[in-house]
Amino acid sequence: MIIIKVKKGEDINRVLKRYNRKHKRLGVIKTCRENEYFTKPSVSKRLKKQKAIYIQKKINEDMD
């Protein structure tokens, strides 16, 4: 649970901005989506490896 303390006289938009920043930093939505379906460990490892290969290719293209 995310707790945001509102200071006296603080603008509501500033509080919402802090909430959203904290929400993204904790990765709440990402973990909810990941836990929606079960993925086998071998599948998650394969996807992680594919992502690393993709990122490495992009870095190599920028270097050339």
Describe the protein's architecture and organization.
The structure is a single chain. This protein is mostly helical. It has one domain. The protein has 3 helices and no strands. The longest helix has 23 residues, at 41-63. The radius of gyration is 19 Å and the shape is flat. The N and C termini lie far apart (46 Å). The model has no long low-confidence stretch (mean pLDDT 92).
Tags for this model:
64 residues, mainly alpha
Overall number of domains: 1
Instruction: Say how many strands there are.
Output: 0
Q: Which structural class do the helices and strands define?
A: mainly alpha
Query: What gross morphology would you assign?
Result: flat
Helix content: over 70%
Detail the poorly predicted runs. Answer: none
- First-to-last CA distance: 46 Å
Strand percentage, roughly?
A: under 5%
Mind summarizing the main beta sheet? Answer: none
- Helix count, DSSP H or I runs of 4 or more residues: 3
Question: Taking Cα atoms only, what radius of gyration do you get, to the nearest Å?
Answer: 19 Å
> For the residues shown, what is the average pLDDT?
92
Which sequence of SSEs, written as H and E, runs from N to C? HHH
